[in-house]
Design goal:
Elements (H helix, E strand, L loop, with lengths): L12 H16 L20 E5 L6 H11 L5 E4 L13 H11 L3 E5 L7 H10 L3 E6 L17 E5 L5 H8 L5 H10 L3 H6 L2 H20 L4 H12 L5 E2 L1 H8 L4 H13 L3 E4 L6 H6 L2 E5 L2 H7 L7 H16 L2 E6 L3 E7 L6 E5 L8 H14 L4 E6 L4 E5 L2 E7 H4 L3
Parallel strand pairs: 1-4, 1-5, 2-3, 3-4, 11-12, 12-14
Antiparallel strand pairs: 6-8, 7-8, 9-10, 10-11, 13-14
Length: 411
């Protein structure tokens, strides 16, 4: 007679306690780093969970430490990406409850908790028990579908990005100028790379995102095609793409597979895909989209392109600045083209054209595109961002202000 013994992957309470204590000691030894601008915009903790999402290694853990250091010194902190917690599952939340009870803290900071099954149910439970909760995660689904119904109406969501140009200059102690802008265009804003300037940091980061945040998370089987597609996109920022063309290029069986991969890229914050402006949602969906990467430093390190292509990278940089402010961003394309139509809470969009170097050969094209967009939206002023030029153009009662990027990025 044979008996089947089921193995439970559970952590001892004593083990979990040691991990919490070890993480607390490690956190207290950390450098506080550059105080992030995002901290000024975060609300005080309340009966709602504060959920902060952003690309891997953009500084979310440091942000939690800064919150701990400045406001919530007695909070209980736990990073679920700790290798010692790989076997943590939903049953271990009971042991965590016991540790929380013994800590006498009513403030909980959970880093990368989304890797644990039914984490939303646990967060809701802690909110109902009167705890203040902050959650971070490297996936945009934290802001949408993964929250399901369990946290509906009980969460405030914020996004964190790599260093902005202003933060880059602050960290490097540089003035806002063409020289510092050129450095930012090359280096980008990932804090560790800004600090150490070792290319392996950004090549390893790309691989981590592709494997840990996408392949493992979504069960992608054709890893090679996923990697090839990511390399193609990072080498073609600012260009138009469609699922059908990519399907043919990579010889994938179905367009839906390509669209799934693009969705995974977007949810991991690796790439953003900007639709053409149209009042018709169907037209937005069927028209080509422009692709932009999360960081120009990552593009420089990982791109397979043999050309410098400063214009595309500069356009990507301006997109990232806009993405920090707006979620609804489009490109405009009728007779001419305008790079960005950005909507905030107001219905009046910001009209932005980007040109690295304005000259006699491209002047008419750039101006015609932005003036056409201004006419379409019945607006009087727009902005043409260049690397290092300043000017002003008027036409039919409309004005386009030409501003250097180092001024625009800090305005």
């Amino acid at each position: 007679m044979y008996f089947y013994i089921k193995h439970f992957n559970m952590l001892l309470k004593s083990t979990l306690n040691r991990i919490v204590e070890a993480q607390r000691i490690n956190l207290n030894q950390k450098d506080i780093g550059l105080m992030r601008e995002a901290l000024k915009k975060y609300p005080g903790l309340s009966s709602h969970a504060l959920i902060v999402s952003g690309v891997r290694r953009c500084g979310k853990s440091t942000l939690l430490f800064q919150l701990l250091h400045s406001k919530y010194k007695n909070a209980l902190y736990l990073n679920f990406e700790d290798p010692r917690l790989y076997e943590f599952d939903k049953n271990d939340f009971l042991r965590l409850d016991s540790i929380i009870s013994e800590s006498n803290s009513k403030i909980l900071f959970f880093d990368e908790i989304q890797i644990i099954t039914e984490w939303e149910r646990y967060i809701r439970q802690k909110l109902d028990e009167g705890f203040n909760v902050v959650v971070t995660g490297s996936n945009a689904t934290l802001l949408s579908r993964e929250l399901g119904t369990r946290l509906t109406g009980r969460h405030i969501t914020k996004e964190l990005f790599p260093f902005s140009y202003r933060e880059f200059c602050s960290y490097k102690k540089l003035r806002f100028s063409a020289k510092s802008l050129s450095g930012y265009l090359v280096t980008g804003g990932f804090p560790e790379y800004v600090k150490r300037n070792e290319d392996d940091i950004l090549s390893s980061l790309l691989e981590d995102i592709l494997i840990r945040d996408i392949t493992v998370r979504y069960g992608v089987r054709d890893v090679k095609t996923l990697q090839r597609l990511a390399l193609y996109l990072i080498s073609n920022i600012g260009n138009l793409i469609t699922g059908n063309k990519l399907k043919t290029l990579f010889e994938v069986g179905a367009t839906s597979t390509i669209m799934e991969y693009l969705s995974h890229f977007e949810y991991s914050y690796l790439f953003h895909f900007v639709p053409k402006f149209s009042y018709s949602l169907r037209k937005q969906m069927v028209n080509p989209r422009k692709v932009y990467a999360i960081d120009t430093g990552m593009v420089n390190v990982n791109s397979a392109s043999f050309t410098e292509d400063s214009g595309r990278k500069f356009e990507n940089l301006i997109f990232l600045h806009l993405r920090r402010k707006y979620k609804d961003i489009y490109y405009f394309s009728e007779k001419g083209e305008c790079d960005f139509i950005s909507y905030g809470r107001k219905e009046i969009p910001e009209i932005i054209q980007v040109c690295y170097n304005l000259n006699q050969d491209n002047l008419d094209r750039e101006l015609n595109g932005i003036f056409e967009a201004l006419t379409f939206f019945n607006l009087k002023t727009g902005t043409l961002v260049t690397f290092n030029q300043k000017d002003r153009f008027q036409r039919n009662g409309m004005t386009v202000h030409v501003v250097p990027g180092y001024d625009y990025l800090v305005s």
